[in-house]
Each structure stands twice: as C-alpha cells, then as structure tokens.
Amino acid sequence: MCVTVAATAALACGTPARLPVSAGIGTRPSIPRRQEAMIPIVNYVKAKGWPPGDSPVAADGLAVQAFAHLDHPRWIYVLPNGDVLVAQTNAPNRPDDNKGLKGFFFKFFGARAGGAVPSPNRITLLRDSNGDGVADSATVFIGGLHSPFGMALVGNTFYVANTDAVVRFPYIAGETRITAAPVKLTALPAGRINHHWTKNIIANPDGSKLYVTVGSNSNIGENGIEHEAERAAIWEVDAATGRHRVFAFGLRNPNGLAWQPESHALWTAVNERDELGSDLVPDYMTAVRDGGFYGWPYSYFGQHPDPRMQPQRPELIARAIVPDYALGPHTASLGLAWSGARALPARFNGGMFVGQHGSWNRKPRSGYKVIFVPFRDGKPDGAPRDVLGGFIRENGDAMGRPVGVAIDSTGSLLVADDVGNTIWRVTRARGTTGH
C-alpha cells in the first residue's frame, strides 16, 4: 500500500519492526519511540482455510484435532453438562465505520483476510455424546441474534451479549434449543459506527453482577470523542434490574474475560491501538481495578502520551494504570481462559490461555497463535509458552485465525478458528507425562 520513491518519502511510509515481538511481552515491555507515518504498515493475510486433513501445529506434548466444523465461529462457552456453545458471528452493518479512501482500503484488505463474511447470527450447541473428542451433533441453540458474542449461564438464566444489548433466555439443563423470545436486560452502545462491535460477558461468582466489554468506536478517537461515551470500557450490570455503571475505562478494545481463582480478580485481554509503528503498542492482559483508567485514548501502557488525541487530558494520564502483562504489539490478543485443570501437561496448568487473532499493522506479522502465560500467586510469572501455531503460511496465506479459547469439561483446550471454520481441541499427546 506504500511505495517509497525517494528518500524524503520515508517518513510518509510505515517501517518494519526494529524490535522482536518478545521485546513487547511481559511485565516490563520495551516501549520505543513512536514511528508515525502518513501511510501505515499494512500487512494483511489472505484467508484460505484449511485443506482436507491439515491442521494447526501443537506444541511438544500436545495434540490437536478438529472438534467441529462451523461457519465463522468466534467465541466459545462450555455449559456445566459439557455441551459446548459457539457464537457464529461477524460484524453487523456499520454504514459510518471506515469511511473515505483510507476506510476503503481497510475494508478491501479486511475482506481478503476473511473479515467480511455475513454474520450467521446464531449460537450452536455441540455435543460429544460418546466422549471421543469429536462433536457428534450440532444444533442451533439460539438463532436470529444480532452479532452475538459473549455468553453466560447463571442458574436457569442464559445471557447473550449481542452487539447492541444484553439479552436473557430461560434455560433448562440438557436442552439443545431455546425457542423463547429474548428479553432485553440492558442496551449496549452500538449505532452506525460501532467500530469495535464485539461485546463479551461474564458473571460474578454469585451471579448478581454481569461484566460486559464495550470496545471503542475508533482507533484513537478520530470519529469524535462524543461517539465514545461509555465505550472503551467494562461495564458492571445488575443482573436483576439491568442498571449499569462503568467499572473500568480507557480499555481500547477489551474482549476476553476470566476470573483468576487465587486473587479472585477479574482479568481482561485488550487489543491496543494502531498506526504508531510496528513496535507499538503492546496488546495486554490485566487485572481490572474498580474505577481504574487504562489510558485510551490519551496515553498507552500507562502514562505514555499519544499526541494524536487532542486536546490532551493530563489529569487522566497521570492516573493511567500500567497493565499487568504485555502480549506483544499487534498480536490482536482476544481470547482469554484460565487453566486450572490437570488434563494437559503440567506446564500448561495454573495460567491464562490467550487466543491471538493477529493484526495488519506490523511487519513482520505477530500473533496468529495461541499462547499460555504461567501465573504464580495470582500474577503472571515468566515468558509465554506457545500452544498452537502454524495458522499462517510464509507467503501470507491464512489457513486459520484463532479467536476464542475455553476449557472443556475434560480439561482440554478448545479454540475457535474463524477463518478455518473449525473448533480445534487441544489435548495431551499420547504417551506424554509430566511437563
């Protein structure tokens, strides 16, 4: 997208990364100087899908197989009886998002990467009745939804986070389809821009509160700060009344949500801003503090100001919280799941699995894999460990892209692959013991 024709044009074009991805990972990542350009690095993949018999590459001691094949699966929720729910979804109609010449190119390349398929707008129930690790039935659990994403079961009430509202349904254990009409609990920010459209949801332990992710309506406020009201935030919603408050804000695009059992803290995975160079800004995961501000759009990774956002808010920047753990620049870290089970080798217990969907704004590419971050005493402890890779060929062909992750009833890992149209199941390799 950017061709340098003279030395003076260099500043107009984005440049490749100067640091390895690993420099932007951990509790103390490198935060180099900004590399702004009139035309940013554009390094999209080409969506291809998996050829018959092919699959991602599992780390040593792990094995991977297809659990089910579905159209554009993005998010996973496991019911208490072991049934697996999958949100088959994509973006809704957004007529005012990505307008103009720049927006045209983003839409063009995004379509090549597999992001422009129509939304199936349903949740599918997968059941493995014989326990062989492959779903033997797939039924439409709920249809006619509006770009659904997050799911949560509390007692006999099943919640869905559509792009524009949290809705609820009555649930009976073991049923394979819900036919009742949805009841709106609370409206969510949406509208004609709705830039980050995915809304995730998780319940607190007693089910009285729901926490809902609401991504920003822009990359860096370019659509007007008035369109960011109560966005780039995590809401706390009263499950009985639907009343809400902003629990934490300044989170550009929070997606994954998980409870850390030792600290009892709510953790989220956040997709950070683009167009500051291949080495910025690290995506991250962090424990979420009540009332906490995490920088967006005025600063990044704590108190590093972003001069593109004017006027600045120095009083907000001064209170910006440094995230707990950086996950690498432009990795598009979306999925998040706590692993406390013992079905996988020991090195994959007691930590967070992260689904890294991969992004367009780095050369060479980063993400496009599933990693595991070990924890100790409720906090990240050490370098991430690769779990599942091989989604991208060297020529940029995308066989798949991992999004949501979840632990199934056996303790195995499930991964939603929205380009490969597959739910992958990762287990301990045969004959593997210990670590």
What do these coordinates show?
With 435 residues, the chain is mainly β. The protein has a single domain (7-428), classed as TolB, C-terminal domain (Neuraminidase), CATH 2.120.10. 4% of the residues lie in helices and 35% in strands. It has 2 helices and 31 strands. The strands form 8 sheets. Strands 3, 23, 24, 25, 26 and 27 form a 6-stranded antiparallel β-sheet that branches. Strands 1-22-19-18-17 form a 5-stranded antiparallel β-sheet, with no helix packed on it. Strands 4-31-30-29 form a 4-stranded antiparallel β-sheet, with no helix packed on it. Strand 15 and strand 16 (244-249) form a beta hairpin.
Instruction: Find the CATH topology.
Output: Neuraminidase
Low-confidence stretches: 3-11
CATH architecture identity: 6 Propeller
Helix content: under 10%
Report strand %. 35-45%
At the fourth level of CATH, the homologous superfamily is TolB, C-terminal domain
Radius of gyration: 21 Å
Mean pLDDT, nearest integer?
A: 94
What is the general shape?
globular
Quickly give the structural class. Answer: mainly beta
Distance between the termini: 45 Å
**What is the total tally of β strands?**
31
Q: How many domains in all?
A: 1
Regarding quaternary structure, what we see is single chain
Largest beta sheet, briefly? 6 strands, antiparallel
The CATH class? Mainly Beta
Discrete helix count: 2
